[in-house]
């Protein structure tokens, strides 16, 4: 049966490859296809992945994919263009993100009044980070203005790491409400947060700059082949993540800022990054959503209720869009641009990863329902954001919003 399942997976991948151009021009996305394939395979072969390995395997693949996607996406962001419109992602991160956590906490508590406030905030914090992988169709679309694409990219690259201290704090509050202690909890949460948000960026920038200089020198002397430039790129992403985590920084923030520094400091051609993401990066995304569909979706559906479905829909709409609208007020963006930025906050790898980490390490009441809510949100996001990406991107074509004018800056004192 396992050989049959593997055969089916390979046939699906080959069929998708043969039809990839047609599919990319349609409303169907790669995550949609392989999540559905995973769900089908999970139903046909429920023992495809041993029970004791399911969550660990999903967590490892999601973490690997997220590291590579963050590093690669950041590497192609051009700082010169980003500086002109930096106010957009900064406001989304510094105003929109806290408001999203606040509104999400209130909504979760309203839907489940019996839940502790820490649990409500935990759900909100896990579902606030957006996903770079699911946003690829928009981020890579030439129809979408560059300032909008880069804002989505930067937001999704940094909000994963910014969410970690909030997730940990809310998990500890949720556990404290039960009178239970957590052995591995940090001694001082403020110190933990400070180290996460300072050492992570420091490691990312230093390693990104240093290895860009090193690679430039190797290329100048003819020491390195194009193939091994891609291998160095891959190894550097994991090196930055591991070093940042080892010294107490946030690995995801380090990886994104490392990629941003590396891509902008490298003097030579960086097409090897795009070529890497079009091959190895896509294979990792395929593996992630196959496992997600086969393992996580059945688990979520078994614990789903009207509450989890209602919260999933709210987190993808009002809980996300209202705070983003508020955060972008006064920047001179059109109503459609603010709607677009508010809607394209897909949930994916980061939310899955954080939910699994909390599920394994913290004895929180209702953890099965929390995991179900997160997985359902990602599942619905894969479909809704996949279907809406092309039509909404095309609306920019020929409109005034398609022009990349710098955003208005708020006057001093405002």
UniProtKB/TrEMBL annotation:
<keyword id="KW-0472">Membrane</keyword>
<keyword id="KW-1133">Transmembrane helix</keyword>
<feature type="domain" description="Cation/H+ exchanger transmembrane">
    <location>
        <begin position="12"/>
        <end position="394"/>
    </location>
</feature>
<protein>
    <submittedName>
        <fullName>Sodium:proton antiporter</fullName>
    </submittedName>
</protein>
<dbReference type="GO" id="GO:0005886">
    <property type="term" value="C:plasma membrane"/>
</dbReference>
<feature type="transmembrane region" description="Helical">
    <location>
        <begin position="160"/>
        <end position="177"/>
    </location>
</feature>
<feature type="transmembrane region" description="Helical">
    <location>
        <begin position="117"/>
        <end position="139"/>
    </location>
</feature>
<keyword id="KW-0050">Antiport</keyword>
<dbReference type="GO" id="GO:0015297">
    <property type="term" value="F:antiporter activity"/>
</dbReference>
<keyword id="KW-0406">Ion transport</keyword>
<dbReference type="InterPro" id="IPR038770">
    <property type="entry name" value="Na+/solute_symporter_sf"/>
</dbReference>
<keyword id="KW-1003">Cell membrane</keyword>
<keyword id="KW-0813">Transport</keyword>
<feature type="transmembrane region" description="Helical">
    <location>
        <begin position="60"/>
        <end position="79"/>
    </location>
</feature>
<feature type="transmembrane region" description="Helical">
    <location>
        <begin position="370"/>
        <end position="388"/>
    </location>
</feature>
<feature type="transmembrane region" description="Helical">
    <location>
        <begin position="91"/>
        <end position="111"/>
    </location>
</feature>
<dbReference type="InterPro" id="IPR006153">
    <property type="entry name" value="Cation/H_exchanger_TM"/>
</dbReference>
<dbReference type="Pfam" id="PF00999">
    <property type="entry name" value="Na_H_Exchanger"/>
</dbReference>
<dbReference type="GO" id="GO:1902600">
    <property type="term" value="P:proton transmembrane transport"/>
</dbReference>
<feature type="transmembrane region" description="Helical">
    <location>
        <begin position="189"/>
        <end position="211"/>
    </location>
</feature>
<feature type="transmembrane region" description="Helical">
    <location>
        <begin position="283"/>
        <end position="301"/>
    </location>
</feature>
<feature type="transmembrane region" description="Helical">
    <location>
        <begin position="308"/>
        <end position="328"/>
    </location>
</feature>
<feature type="transmembrane region" description="Helical">
    <location>
        <begin position="223"/>
        <end position="244"/>
    </location>
</feature>
<feature type="transmembrane region" description="Helical">
    <location>
        <begin position="340"/>
        <end position="358"/>
    </location>
</feature>
<keyword id="KW-0812">Transmembrane</keyword>
């Amino acid at each position: 049966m396992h050989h049959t399942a593997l055969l089916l997976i390979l046939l699906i991948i080959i069929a998708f490859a043969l039809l990839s151009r047609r599919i990319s021009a349609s409303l169907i996305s790669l995550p949609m296809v392989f999540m559905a394939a995973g769900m089908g395979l999970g139903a046909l072969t429920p023992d495809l992945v041993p029970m004791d390995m399911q969550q660990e395997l999903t967590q490892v693949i999601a973490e690997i994919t997220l590291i590579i996607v963050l590093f690669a996406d950041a590497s192609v962001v051009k700082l010169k263009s980003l500086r002109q419109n930096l106010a957009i992602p900064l406001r989304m991160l510094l105003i929109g993100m806290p408001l999203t956590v606040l509104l999400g906490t209130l909504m979760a508590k309203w839907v489940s009044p019996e839940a502790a406030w820490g649990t409500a905030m935990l759900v909100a914090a896990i579902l606030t980070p957006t996903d770079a992988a699911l946003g690829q169709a928009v981020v890579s679309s030439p129809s979408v203005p560059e300032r909008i694409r880069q804002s989505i990219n930067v937001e999704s690259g940094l909000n994963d790491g910014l969410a970690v201290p909030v997730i940990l704090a809310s998990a500890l509050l949720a556990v404290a409400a039960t009178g239970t202690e957590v052995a591995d909890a940090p001694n001082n949460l403020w110190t933990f947060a400070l180290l996460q948000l300072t050492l992570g960026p420091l490691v990312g920038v230093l390693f990104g700059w240093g290895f860009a200089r090193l690679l430039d020198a190797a290329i100048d002397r003819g020491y390195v082949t194009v193939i091994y430039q891609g291998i160095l790129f891959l190894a550097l992403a994991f090196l930055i993540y591991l070093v940042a985590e080892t010294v107490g920084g946030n690995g995801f923030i380090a990886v994104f800022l490392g990629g941003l520094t590396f891509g902008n400091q490298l003097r030579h051609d960086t097409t090897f990054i795009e070529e890497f993401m079009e091959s190895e990066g896509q294979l990792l995304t395929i593996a992630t959503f196959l496992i997600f569909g086969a393992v996580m979706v059945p688990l979520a559906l078994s614990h789903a209720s009207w509450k989890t479905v209602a919260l999933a829909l709210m987190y993808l709409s009002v809980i996300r869009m209202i705070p983003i609208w508020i955060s972008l007020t006064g920047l001179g963006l059109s109503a459609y641009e603010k709607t677009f930025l508010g809607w394209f906050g897909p949930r994916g790898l980061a939310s899955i990863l954080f939910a699994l980490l909390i599920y394994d390490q913290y004895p929180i009441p209702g953890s099965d329902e929390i995991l179900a809510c997160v997985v359902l949100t990602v599942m619905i996001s894969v479909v809704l954001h996949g279907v809406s990406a092309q039509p909404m991107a095309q609306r920019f074509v020929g409109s005034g919003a398609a022009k990349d004018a710098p955003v208005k800056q708020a006057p001093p004192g405002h």
